Amino acid sequence: MKIGITSIIIVLLIIAFFWFRNKSETYEKAPKDFVLVKSENESTNYLPIVEKKWLKEIELKYAGKEWKSYPNKYTELTQTLCNDVYKPWKGEISHSEFLNKMTKEQRMFFSLVNFESQTNNGGVYQFLFNNPELSLITLEALKTAKMGKLTIDYNNVLTEFYGKFETIQELNKQFQDQSQKWDKRWNSFAEGYKELETTLTIEKYFYEKEYVKIFQSKMVDFIKENSTGLMKMK
Fold first, then answer.
1. Among positive and negative, which fits the CA dihedral 102, 81, 224, 139?
2. Is the confidence at residue 23, as pLDDT, over 50?
3. Distance CA 92, CA 98 (A)
4. Are 158 and 175 spatial neighbours (Cβ–Cβ below 8 Å)?
5. Is 3 within the bounds of a domain?
6. N or C: which end of the chain has fewer CB within 10 A?
7. Of 129, 139, 134, 188, nearest to 159 (Cα)?
8. Is residue 17 part of a domain?
9. b/e for 120-158, b at 16 or more Cβ within 10 A?
10. What is the mean pLDDT of the chain?
11. What is the pTM of this model?
12. Domain membership of residue 93 as a residue range
């Protein structure tokens, strides 16, 4: 009788072992609906309409004035070109779907505005957690906006977060083809893994007044160089 009970206990322990192991390998599906530079649904439907002299008027408004973190030329441009454009989005479609209906210039600009606001609020970790769909296009946007050191440092963050990659296209394909590996990594991150050491490099300078001025100045340059993809003139 004792042998029988012992055998049952051993069997139950084995079953429990495999049950917990399988349970531990079941992960919540990670987000894979990334916003990319190219979109099949791209349109100009969400371009804000502005007066032809609007950019020049803002330029003159702040010309010769000492730069302030707010309000300034960049924050005024962003209100019209980004914040106001978000107003029609009520969450009836995903963030990715909404942005993929815009121009590539808008997608890049919006990704950088989101990166700035989320990082200012809670660090690069918060940006990756709240907007994982923007994580890939942000690297492309940083390159296009000629952000220099920030581009290099953010590339290092993605490498630590996602693993080594050669191109954004390769990285995106990796998520689609090896979903379980990405699910495991995302679950670990979502459960509180904030030890992304590479993010600290960015956060050491991103909040400094002088760097904020540099970042916003480059964003204004991005707007000027890509105006036709960010607004309609009348």
1. negative
2. no
3. 9
4. no
5. no
6. N
7. 139
8. no
9. eeebbbbbbeebbbbbbbbbbbbbbbebeebbebbebbb
10. 88
11. 0.85
12. 32-233
Does some domain include residue 214?
yes
CB 73 within 8 A of CB 58: yes
Dihedral (Cα; 36, 167, 160, 29), 10-degree rounding: 50
**Looking at residue 188, what is its pLDDT?**
75
**CA–CA separation, 178 vs 82, rounded Å?**
34
pLDDT at 194 over 80: no
Number of domain units in the chain? 1
**77-134 pLDDT per residue, tens:** 999 999 999 999 999 999 999 999 999 999 999 999 999 999 999 999 999 999 999 9
Q: Is residue 7 part of a domain?
A: no
Residue 25 CA to residue 183 CA, distance in Å, equals: 10
- Phi, psi for residue 50 in degrees, rounded to 5: -130, 160
Tokens of 174: 């990796």
